[in-house]
């Protein structure tokens, strides 16, 4: 998404022609920037960004409870791993024996599935990882090519800017000298007019 910054189209910097600033010039520029920042009203750039989607936490109880816990600063409840433990049931309670037996069966099935997954990993995992790494290498190669293209474009743009600015150097310097000459001439005319005004006032007062 492109964000337009007001006034950015009026930047007239000539980095390949402008002379290097000295300490005093940098200090003056920073002072002028600070003064401008204290005076101007910043634009609302965030208004150009699409608003975030309206999400209602109340529709999801677990999210609502979790947000409430975070607001109250309560500690997160530890994960309940009791069902993964094979506790010895009490002799007197038949229900405990039944629950423990069912839990033991579940644990056995879980271990069998883990064993099956490990067997499959040993049999096919190596090739799958090779394919996965090959895909990653291809993605990396494509990203490097894209990066190289962008860097070449940036270099080409900078080279074009440099050539355009250097080709205009003599014309800019000529206009710059002409501007200073005109300013100096205007000052001389202004001073001459002021002297004439003083002479006229002196004559009129006699």
From TrEMBL:
<dbReference type="GO" id="GO:0000974">
    <property type="term" value="C:Prp19 complex"/>
</dbReference>
<dbReference type="Pfam" id="PF05700">
    <property type="entry name" value="BCAS2"/>
</dbReference>
<keyword id="KW-0539">Nucleus</keyword>
<dbReference type="GO" id="GO:0008380">
    <property type="term" value="P:RNA splicing"/>
</dbReference>
<keyword id="KW-0507">mRNA processing</keyword>
<keyword id="KW-0175">Coiled coil</keyword>
<feature type="coiled-coil region">
    <location>
        <begin position="133"/>
        <end position="206"/>
    </location>
</feature>
<dbReference type="GO" id="GO:0071011">
    <property type="term" value="C:precatalytic spliceosome"/>
</dbReference>
<keyword id="KW-0747">Spliceosome</keyword>
<dbReference type="GO" id="GO:0006397">
    <property type="term" value="P:mRNA processing"/>
</dbReference>
<protein>
    <submittedName>
        <fullName>Spliceosome-associated protein</fullName>
    </submittedName>
</protein>
<dbReference type="GO" id="GO:0071013">
    <property type="term" value="C:catalytic step 2 spliceosome"/>
</dbReference>
<dbReference type="InterPro" id="IPR008409">
    <property type="entry name" value="SPF27"/>
</dbReference>
<keyword id="KW-0508">mRNA splicing</keyword>
<comment type="similarity">
    <text>Belongs to the SPF27 family.</text>
</comment>
